Amino acid sequence: MFNSILKQCTLSCTKQIAVPLQFRCLSLSSATLKDNKDSENNTNEGWLKKLLVRRIEPTKEQHSRMLSDKEVIYELQTHNVRPDSTDNYMKNYEQVVQLCQKIPNLKYELIGSWSVRVGDLDQYVHLWKHQGGYAEIDKTNTILTQNQEYTKLRNQCGQFLRSRHLQYLLAFSFWPSIELKSGSNIYEIRSYSLKPGTMIEWGNNWARAINHRRSNDEPFAGFFSQVGRLYNVHHFWCYKNLEVRTQTREAAWMSPGWDECVAYTVPLIKEMQSKILHPTPFSPTQ
């Protein structure tokens, strides 16, 4: 008698707390996703399933080699300047740029130089290009450290700074090639800190997502870090002004497939930030 009552209560409780099938398993494997899809009889995917991170198989090849050309390395300098020293800093850095252009056999090219207008204020961002891989970076560093004028300017620059950070980056192979801009533009750098081990997954999704963001020639450059803060991604976008930026981003959401790309990349991110940049007068790209 008691066992019969207990059995009936157990069945009743099980029915009341039954969990819908699509929420029972958050496995990342493709096989599990396929099983879920079959069990739902080909019904429309729920939003939760779009947030699942797909599995990346182990590989003997470096992830960076699968995503980029390692012969071209970019250097991202971030300088936090004392608020009372911005003018002196700008004069000093322009002299550094002019000096680097004069030194023979220096494969060290400034691509862009910007001041941050929205985000971390009194901050300047400089993007340099090294042609020839890390061997050429070693040569460049040797030449510059042995140049007395460069050493003097670098020491002077330190007086104007609160802090600075440097990263070596590789360009994503699926992004359009960098083309220097002219006229009046603003730039946005969107920086992402990814979960370790997710860089290939990020690249897989953005190789498709970039096709939704080619209107108005807005993509400028896309990088991932190699030395410095790791698992960092930086996307540079170029717009005529803030209003055009707003219109362009809203148009992307109207493009079929963009929402899916966003849904797949959101779980890969630990932290993200956006900064609005204005080119300096001596920046090669305007």
Strand order of the largest sheet: 1-3-2-8-5-7-6-4
Our estimate of the beta-strand percent is 25-35%
Euclidean distance between termini CA atoms: 85 Å
Mean pLDDT across all amino acids: 82
Give me the Rg, rounded.
25 Å
Spans where pLDDT lies below 50 across 5 or more residues = 9-56
**What would you call the shape?**
globular
Q: Count the helices. How many?
A: 10
Sequence of secondary-structure elements: HHHHEHEEHHEEHEEHHE
Q: Could you give a short account of the major beta sheet?
A: 8 strands, antiparallel, barrel
Descriptive account of the structure:
By secondary structure, this protein is an alpha+beta fold. The protein is built from 10 helices and 8 strands. Strands 1-3-2-8-5-7-6-4 form an 8-stranded antiparallel β-barrel. A hairpin with a 4-residue loop joins β6 and β7. α5 packs antiparallel against α7 (148-158). The longest helix is centred in the first third of the chain and has 17 residues, at 86-102. Residues 9-56 have low confidence and may be disordered. Residues 74-131, 187-284 form the NIPSNAP domain. One of its GO terms (cellular component) is mitochondrion. InterPro entries: Dimeric_a/b-barrel, NIPSNAP, NipSnap_domain.
Task: Give keywords.
single chain, 286 residues, 8 strands, globular, alpha+beta, eight-stranded antiparallel beta barrel
Task: Give a topology summary.
Elements: H1 2-16, H2 30-39, H3 47-50, H4 63-67, E1 72-81, H5 86-102, E2 108-118, E3 123-131, H6 133-145, H7 148-158, E4 161-171, E5 186-194, H8 199-209, E6 219-227, E7 232-239, H9 242-253, H10 258-265, E8 269-279
Antiparallel strand pairs: 1-3, 1-4, 2-3, 2-8, 4-6, 5-7, 5-8, 6-7
Pfam family, one: NIPSNAP
Family: Belongs to the NipSnap family.
InterPro entries: Dimeric_a/b-barrel (IPR011008), NIPSNAP (IPR012577), NipSnap_domain (IPR051557)
